[in-house]
Design brief:
Distance between the termini: 6 Å
Strand content: under 5%
Largest sheet: none
Order of helices and strands: HHHHHH
Number of strands: 0
Shape: globular
Number of helices: 6
């Protein structure tokens, strides 16, 4: 059982899913996660979180955002990840109950492997002809992390809906 409330996950999921699909699409097409998507994700938490979380938990979740943003900025400065990835992680952080962090890390690892393998298989298959001009196909070693990040957040909310407290 996850610590996120099933009720909170059920409210977050339908609003977060389209944003995550958009992030996946734009990151594959342009190798870019837009600020508008990150702001929209954060606004979902700001508005819905206030309604579905206890006030103390809601306010503490903003520390998740701050910590994730600082760590993401450091990783971006070190060239480990893109700025859009760091901002997406920060915007997604408040959705995660701290007690579920270990589960989320395992989910992210699985999402990274799945997204990487799927991206590379499609890159070298006839399916690539469906979107021949996407930058992620010709980006060398760069990888659209938005695929894995958005998949992990979506999966976490799905699991939270199904197995949440």
């Amino acid at each position: 059982m996850l610590s996120i409330s099933a009720m909170a996950a059920s409210w977050f999921l339908p609003l977060v899913l389209p944003i995550c699909l958009y992030v996946c699409y734009t990151d594959m097409r342009e190798l870019r996660i837009t600020n508008a998507a990150n702001i929209a994700l954060l606004m979902v938490f700001v508005v819905v979180g206030l309604m579905v979380l206890p006030l103390d938990a809601y306010l503490w979740r903003y520390t998740h955002l701050a910590v994730a943003l600082v760590v993401g900025m450091a990783l971006n400065a070190g060239g480990v990840m893109g700025a859009g990835d760091a901002k997406f992680i920060a915007a997604a952080a408040p959705f995660v109950h701290l007690a579920d962090l270990r589960f989320l890390m395992a989910l992210l690892a699985a999402s990274l492997i799945g997204a990487f393998v799927t991206h590379r298989l499609i890159k070298f298959s006839p399916l690539r002809r469906l979107a021949p001009d996407w930058k992620s196909w010709t980006s060398g070693k760069r990888f659209p992390m938005g695929m894995a990040l958005s998949a992990a957040l979506t999966a976490y909310l799905i699991f939270g809906y199904r197995y949440g407290s």
